[in-house]
Amino acid sequence: MREFEYAVAGDARAAIAAARGGARYLAGGTNLVDLMKLGVETPALVVDVSRLPFDSIEPTADGGLLIGAMASNSDVAAHPVVRQRYPVLARALLSGASGQLRNAATVGGNLLQRTRCGYFQDVTKPCNKRAPGSGCPARDGDHRNHAILGASKQCIATNPSDLAVALAALDAVVVIEDDAGPRRIPLSEFYRRPGERPDLETNLPPGALITGVELPALGVAARSTYRKVRDRASYAFAVISVAAALEVREGIVDDVRIALGGVAPLPWRARRAEAALARVPATEESFRVAAVLELDAAEPLRDNAFKVPLARNLITRVLLDLATASGATA
Amino acid sequence: MTETLTRAVGMPVTRIEGVAKVTGEALYAAEYPLADLAFGSVVQSTIARGRIVAVDVDAALAMPGVLAVLTHENAPRLGDAGDADICLLQDDAVHYRGEAVALVVATSLEAARSAADVLPISYDEQPHDVVLTEDHPGLYRPGHVNPGFETDTEQGDPDAELAASPVTVDRRYSTPTMQNNPMEPHAATAVWDGHRLTAYDSTQGAASVHRVLTKLFDLPGDAVRVYSPHVGGGFGSKGSARPPVVLAAMAARVVGRPVRVVLTRQQMFALVGYRTPTLQRLRIGADRDGTLRAIIHDAVEQTSTVLEFAEQTTVATRMMYAATARRTTHRLAALDVPTPRWMRAPGECPGMFALESALDELAEACGVDPVELRIRNEPPADPESGLPFSSRSLVACLREGANRIGWADRSTTPGSRQDGRWAIGLGVAASTYPARSAPSTARATAQSDGRFVLSITAADIGTGARTALTQVFADEMQAPMQAVDVRIGDSDFGPAMIAGGSMGTASWSWAALLAAQALRAKLDECGGAVPAEGIDVHVDTADAIGAMSKVSRHAFGAQFAQVRVDVETGEVRVPRLVGVFGAGRVVNPKTARSQLIGGMTMGLSMALHEESTIDSRFGDYTNHDLAGYHIAANADVGEIDASWVEEIDHEVNPLGIKGIGEIGIVGTAAAIANAVYNAAGVRVRDLPIRLDRVLVG
User: Fold this and answer.
1) What is the CATH number of the domain that holds B613?
2) In chain A, what residues touch B110 (CB-CB under 8 Å)?
3) How many domains does chain B have?
4) Which residue in B568, B691, B696 is closest to A317 by CB distance?
5) CA–centroid distance for B56 within its chain
6) Mean pLDDT throughout B7-14?
7) Using DSSP, how many helices (H) and how many strands (E) does chain A show?
8) pLDDT value of residue A329
């Protein structure tokens, strides 16, 4: 770990000014501090934004919910409105990390988590994301946990966030602030595919501060869930996760949202599967066909091909469970 | 023995130092407050084989707080201690990735780490080879396997018996590289006072580290003192001197002040010894009723180019079951990897995974119940030596365990029981571990204040050894536990067995017993009057151990697993483990149960999670931390029912102790793998039982 300066931001303006000068924001520190210890992050200045007044969870004028960026994962997961109207979000948060980490980790920080790719985290090895142009050893190396969708020649690392997968399914909007003032970026436009520049992970302007996440009023979200398959029963990143919401009327799919974690460099909204499920009978067969269709685009590597049948099975199962829970299978 | 001797032994006594540990009062090796303490940060090689061309120390030395940079060019020369793994910084050769190639010493840990992170080292890199294969061209037959077993054994004509057997199993099994991760990282603090060296070390054997330090630094025995009163786990990886104590002692001599070296969790993956990967083949021939005719067990494993370590993977197969003929072999490849060393039950642990999995496959092929198959092949005497067993309770353990897990309800058709989305099943495997004792010395003192003190270079690595010794010593002194003090973890107390090989409590208790007997005799001589300076006795168990009868001494056990398998995702859960052991006298049921539960938990972790993945191009692990190298979390561990059958064995040692540190991990993985097969019809022969292996299997 290198020496660094630490400053507490008095207000958002000051924080943004410091970040424009190269400082890194510190909120819960559950990822940044680890990366600093590993030498992956070497900021000269760390600006503590955890005391900025962005930790409330409040209803929005149009019936949605605004979650402050500094709200802890624990607080969001326990919030009655989240539990009632967006259960997928509470479950995604509770499936992540440990109780202690969830108490410290924040919503804003969670969205900016870096990948857990072992090559990215080891400064003695090449990595296009950490050191652009140095190469991607994962492609021919250890990639069991890597992406099958949306990756590039340059990078196959997955996004580790559970929260972001739920937010992708919910059509959330990320609220940010920078020199130009507050702005809103839909989650679907927040993350970038790695392409030729895997070092650029989001469309966040330089120095911008995430101040909140807005959930739209979304009826189907009340019938949602999150299922995470991982290599141990808790305290592990997803091998595959599925966030889904399903509304069935008279045996027919009325509304459906599906997002996948652990399969791509970004939370993967399964739009092909959703399209295939529009107005079809809510049956296991429909769900399976949709899942297969989504995974048609998969480009598995030597050691992660199992993710294709696993994702297919999991999507099918989660949708079936949601349909069954509402007593609405065809 | 008289009545009073059993007052404390056998009672579930709470760990004596428990309060000191949870209040932070108990000091560990890196916690001793010392004036002018300096901190060493280890720099590891970033190549797997080659030579160091240059280390640019100038920039590091110019950084604030940096006192010295030790490299092969300036480090003190070390004597030969018979362990090349710790002959550090002596030449420019790099033998594996992660080898200690420099130590930055600074006035703060932060300064040392900052400089260590950026120390420029240039290498002449040479091609490396880190991948073990069954047909590796470098495979050779080692002279012996750890610690001194024959490499290969043969009894009868196994090939002919196999060929003549109506039922055969011929299967390959593998276990991956597994890493020692005790809670307390390896750490040491060294202080020189002229030519006297004091080391606070996190070790399973202060006497063993003492011996090594005298040789490395060419010092007389009384010039070195090693303290290790509290140790936060070891599993074998602290069974010998490891890099921190050697580097700390070297650095302290160079900078002329105390130096502390603590490994980071990541560094431990290369520097403390790990369990070799094993590639095993089991060929078993049997009659249709399951009676064994031939067992052939071949193991392929790795060592390093630094030092030969040959895991004794197939030794348990030599004595587990009766068979007409058998052969066991070990072959090694010396790769450009860190040296594999001890990890809880070396040999028995990976070997019994293969043997007990193969027996499950044989049971199915014969249509014989797996519990019954094992009982049917119970040997009348040790098949390898022909010697009688001092005691052997395997059958009793199998029957008791079967009863506890509800074996009678097990379906004999794999994949036929379902509970919601979960396929459910049961599995069994046997367990064994040798019961040995090694010479130890001890001093017992009667003080004029009426207290008795036992001083012995034992180590309590979390096992409860200190408490068990207190129970034994108090009983033998016919005194309440409150009237005795047991002092451990100080090499000044003299040579003693390490906390290893499940021999610690057995060996030290023997010395405690002899010391108490000698002290009582001396007290009798002086009519019970203790002079102001106290009365001292000193004992050594070497003669008594040398005079032991020739019998076969082993502990046995039976492990049962209940598993749930989600066949859609391959997820495996283990809601219940039952372990029943025949392990001689249990000195302290509370800490003993804790040891067995710990072993079984580690076995579960081995079965489902633990695996170091290596990238052959870098010669390096890709998951060298606890986020990437998974160990079972609380949520993975269900109910663990660990118990023992009554077993009185006067031939193992005077107290009848067999040792329980390791047997708990032996067989767990096979029981779980066998249960997964019973539940889902998927046979996983390569550990760990990852979901992708179950899903596509």
Assistant:
1) 3.30.365.10
2) 1, 3
3) 3
4) B568
5) 39
6) 95
7) 12, 12
8) 52
Last residue of a domain, one of B545, B567, B588: B545
Domain assignment present for A306: yes
CB contact under 8 A, B633 and A2: no
Cβ-Cβ contacts under 8 Å, A238 against chain B: none
As for how many domains chain A has, the answer is 2
pLDDT band at A330 (very low <50, low <70, confident <90, very high): very low
In a domain, B33, yes or no: no
With 0-12 / 13-18 / 19 or more C-beta atoms within 10 angstroms meaning exposed / middle / buried, residue B419 is exposed
Say what the ipTM of the complex is: 0.97
**Assigned domain for B136 exists:** no
Q: Do A116 and B623 touch (CB under 8 A)?
A: no
- In terms of phi and psi (left: phi > 0; alpha: psi -120 to 50; beta: otherwise), the region of B648 is beta
Same-domain check for residues B172 and B193: no
Mean pLDDT of B35-43: 98
Closest to A315 in 3D by CA, of A280, A281, A284: A284
- A204-230 pLDDT, tens per residue? 999 999 999 999 999 999 999 999 999
Q: What is residue B18's predicted lDDT score, i.e. its pLDDT?
A: 96
Q: Say yes or no: B295 and B308 in one domain.
A: yes
Q: Is B662 a catalytic residue?
A: yes
B207 and B248 belong to one structural domain:
yes
8 A C-beta contact, residue B363 and residue B427: no
pLDDT of residue B697 exceeding 60, the answer is no
> From the centroid of its chain, how far is CA B295?
27
Q: Domain range holding A238?
A: 222-325
CA distance A197 to chain B (A): 23
Among the partner-chain residues A116, A231, A235, the one whose CB lies closest to the CB of B691 is: A231
For B695, which of A3, A142, A306 is closest by C-beta distance? A306
Asked whether residue A106 is assigned to any structural domain, the reply reads no
Q: Which residue of B has its CA nearest to A317?
A: B568
- Do B168 and B189 lie in one domain? The reply is no
User: What average pLDDT does chain A have?
Assistant: 96
Which of A174-183, B5-14, B264-273 is the least confident region? B5-14
Q: Are residues B328 and B397 in the same domain?
A: yes
- In angstroms, the CA A231 to CA B467 distance is 37
Measure A191 CA to nearest chain B CA, in Å: 24
Cα B109 to chain centroid distance, Å, stands at 30
Same domain, B429 and B401: yes
Inter-chain touch B692–A310, beta carbons under 8 Å: yes
Close Cβ partners of B217 (under 8 Å, ≥ 6 residues apart): B76, B78, B79, B197, B224, B249, B253
Domain co-membership, B627 together with B505: no
Range of the domain at B221: 38-127+185-233+238-271
B141 is a domain residue: no
Q: Work out the minimum CA distance from B693 to partner chain A, whole angstroms.
A: 9
Q: CA–CA separation, B280 vs B481, rounded Å?
A: 48
B398 and B284 within one domain: yes
Query: In this predicted structure, which of A70-74, A124-128, A322-326, B425-429 has the lowest mean pLDDT?
Result: A322-326
Test B609 with A116 for CB contact under 8 angstroms: no
